[in-house]
Write the structure tokens for this entry.
Amino acid sequence: MLLRALVLPEGDPARTLAAEQLIQHPEWYESLPSAGLLESLANAPVPSNPLDAAPDEPSRVLLARTLQETEDPDSASANAQSMTERVNNTLETLKYRQLERRQREPSDPHRRSSPPGRR
């Protein structure tokens, strides 16, 4: 969803929302395989050929596959939500997942836990 939004024309509300939030919150997507591509597309104007924004070949393939996928026009989600709403929902999901990851991390990553009775 975010890749599709980021290749929309400059000024499109869905693209603007996606780019602004991704620029402000790289921690939301830094662990994703598409992180380099999201960063490239969010931080620069869309090139005339969006595939030119891909930083490497795997990113180019990912973007090409994403852009080739078509949404079913009869799907309930496509009809019920605008692109901007779907982008917002995707961003909220990224935010939530990043918060979950942070909660699972130990409070001090440099502290090693030792077995009981050993110090």
Summary: The CA atoms of residues 91 and 97 lie 10 Å apart. The chain has a mean pLDDT of 84. The chain has six helices and no strands.
